[in-house]
Predict the structure.
Amino acid sequence: MSTTPHTDREYEQQLTHLREQILLMGARVEQMIATSIRALTERNSALAKDVIDSDRRVDSLELEVDHLCLTILARRQPVASDLRFLTTALKIVTDLERIGDLGVNICERTLELNAEPPLKPYIVLPKMAEVVQGMIKEALDAFVAQNADRAQAVPERDHLVDAYYGQVFRELLTYMMEDPKTISRAIKIQSIAKYLERIGDHATNLAEMVVFMARGSDIRHLGTLKTQKARPHGVLFLCVHNNARSQMAEAWARKLFPVGVRIWSAGSEPSDQVDPRAIRVMQEVGIDISTARPKDVSVIPIGDVDTVITLCAEEICPLLPGEHHRESWSIPDPTTVSGNDEEITRLFREVRDELHHRIDAFMQSWSGD
């Protein structure tokens, strides 16, 4: 948006009002995230309900901003920086509204958790929330200042959010493996971590839109290009028993990877069959692994493998000789957990969904063909 006031005073007032409404919406979603985490850490259900109720005001602001933008576009037919400002505003409010929804989701899980005994002190989640709140604030401050450099620094913090999410996931899986009675609570806490991780992604979107508004350049997806690696030709998912984690990873990769990438899974001490619960949870997402069989790493054509991804957590994964790109995804083995079928199936779903998330991120790190 141009910093030079328009000679048409009414037009200038419309643009100023629009910017103020976006900032008001941003301030409210910032407050929703802060209050939702406070409700969680203080086990305050009344605060959580207040956040849920406040979402209606955010939704109303989104509708108002949309109406303002469309009215200005129709009546004023703006060009150049004003047009970028209006198209950016339409996208920004969508991300802000979704952040508000995620704050509501946090409070919904908080209400459920408050009905049960606490599982553990919340240490990482408040830190994670502090980072995403800072990302939102910095993106909005950059919006006000029309400062592309400030906005461009926001996506760089997202890797910290991802690291916190990985830490929470590993800690909670350990709790679930040690005591199946914690599975229900742990899954709710893990969901909150996932909501915060998604808020970080939306804050990144906000910042990228501000860069577009200020400079007219689209930096979406460019943040990962600097660290991209070549697309692999042969990928091996490796663990000990090859009866759950690596089988699910192989199945996701076969579904998601482009044609031309060869995919295997194997184990150093393969079981006799794939765990039925792994088959069941993959069927829930439309993937059939009922005919899969655990394989020993010795039967894999190692010469065709250029990427090895180990999935072991506490146990020791086998090491392969040769030059390979290696990644370690520390994902505990759900087959080692004891408990009732419903609790363990929930854990299998968590592992399934985490593998999906990891494989998506792995694909995004590839350079073009």
Observations:
- The CA atoms of residues 212 and 218 lie 5 Å apart.
- The longest strand covers residues 234-239.
